[in-house]
Amino acid sequence: MEANIESKFKAAVSVDNVVFGFDNNDLKVLLIYRGAEPYKDCWALPGDLISLDQDLEQSAENVLQNLTGLDNIYMDQIHTFGRVDRHPFGRVFTVAYFALIKIQDYLVKPSSWAEEAAWFPINEVPELPFDHMEILEYAKDLLKNKIRHQPIGFELLPKYFTLTEIQSLYEAILETQFDTRNFRKKLLSMNLIVDTGRQQKEVAHRPAKLYKYITKRYAQLQQSGFSFDL
Amino acid sequence: MEANIESKFKAAVSVDNVVFGFDNNDLKVLLIYRGAEPYKDCWALPGDLISLDQDLEQSAENVLQNLTGLDNIYMDQIHTFGRVDRHPFGRVFTVAYFALIKIQDYLVKPSSWAEEAAWFPINEVPELPFDHMEILEYAKDLLKNKIRHQPIGFELLPKYFTLTEIQSLYEAILETQFDTRNFRKKLLSMNLIVDTGRQQKEVAHRPAKLYKYITKRYAQLQQSGFSFDL
DNA sequence: CTATAAAGTGTGTAAATTACACTTATTCAA
DNA sequence: TTGAATAAGTGTAATTTACACACTTTATAG
User: Fold this and answer.
1) What is the distance in angstroms between the CA of the first residue and the CA of the last residue of chain B?
2) Which of A28, B35, B68, B207 can pair with A119 through a Cys bridge, CB separation 3.0 to 4.6 Å?
3) How many Å apart are CA A87 and CA A63, to the nearest integer?
4) In chain C, which nucleotides are within 7 Å of a protein Cβ?
5) B8/A51 touch (CB, cutoff 8 Å), yes or no
6) ipTM exceeding 0.90, yes/no
């Protein structure tokens, strides 16, 4: 039994990544300056067409890998966009992913198809081509929901971070304010982070303790019916 | 400016629907008996290749429309599956959707490409072809999460339902038990459902009051920061 | 009219969430 | 060296929410 798929069904499929970072109390998104048509010379989400011998997940990881040189990044599929006219050169479906990276740990290098890459504060994103703005909005919503129910905020912070930093991160993403004492109490009571004994250095005020996130803990706690919530 | 997408990137894209129903205290899923290759004569998720002139969402709705004759069904995109070898006839990405339907209101008619369609209790699903089992698991997980945070359970019940019915539905899907008094208290306190004044008829015990879900309420309440949780 | 079956209802206790303000540790500049 | 500036760090009482728990009511069937 052999057969082929009729060519009247054949379209291209791409991946587009919404890469989030956190820096200077701002949530940021990584955009590339397109060096090729269509929409040459526009800022856009980093993405690429999927070649036929590559798994979907793999493609999304490769795009990010080319862009950042990083492995082992938190990624998640968001949604697939497939309006007939979303791409001017033909029918192209795109599978959107989001990624969370530790912005200060790594420098971003533009890939072959991009002339430049840069971080934009989430509220200062320029006009985006295709349906990229819609994708970005989708990603923001997902991030907001997810960060409240899963301990993924730590993916955006350095290995060692202060309680004030994690609180600012939550406040920036959720666009709310938390009471410092209550926030700390709740976060610490989950036993997902521990005091490393280290401290901030060279700050013009009382230095904050540095904590780190214990990845294993969450997996263990989940077994016992624990559910993360902030 | 004109260009085309190289054919080395061209693949097929399909939609597959996980259609849930609830009946006799059981969560059920709708499968079709495939009348065409590949996997002819297997039970599978209803799906179809997307033709190039059709939007993605539209395709998913059409598959369901052909199968059930129904419009206006709750649908949600789940995830996109794109392993290179997931389809024996070539590269086929599939975008999975889930749909919730009121099983008792409508009879299911098999579509052209299916010889038969039938409801299977979620724990008595036969082996499925392609990666359909993986898709189904994904859909079950999503349903479990979603039903706790959004008032979508009502989509699975008749227009008028009893409190016992909605409780059984939650118990079946979440695989837990709820205390009757607490469940009712919480559900009613959300003001999303109202007593219609009607009653069950011809049951061999005290007849239950019939309630209905007020769609508009949820939208209103959301504005004011309300969040559904059960 | 009695048995059966499921519907319907309230209260006290424990746990979680919220509101709220001052003290401490460090750097920098006078 | 000392005081001003800055952000870190900390506890308790009040309120709200979640949880555990058992009997009464209303219908039908025989």
Assistant:
1) 54
2) A28
3) 19
4) 4-11, 17-21, 24-28
5) yes
6) yes
Calculate how close chain B gets to A45, using CA atoms only, in Å: 19
Token output for B93: 């990405």
Q: Near strand D (CB < 7 A), which residues?
A: A 162-164, 180-182, 184-185, 203-209; B 179-182, 185-186, 199, 202-207, 229
pLDDT per residue over A95-129, tens digit each?
Answer: 999 999 999 877 666 666 666 899 999 999 999 99
State residue A109's pLDDT score. 67
The two counts, helices (H) then strands (E), for chain B are 5, 9
Strand partners, B205: none
Q: Which two tokens stand for residue B155?
A: 């989509």
Q: Residue B91's closest chain A neighbor by CA?
A: A52
Q: What are phi and psi of A225, to 5 degrees?
A: 75, 10
List CB contacts of A2: < 8 A, sequence separation 6 or more: B89
Asked if residue A194 lies in contact with residue A212, where contact means CB atoms within 8 angstroms, the answer is yes
pTM of the entire structure? 0.94
Q: Are strands A26-34 and A10-23 parallel, antiparallel or unpaired?
A: antiparallel
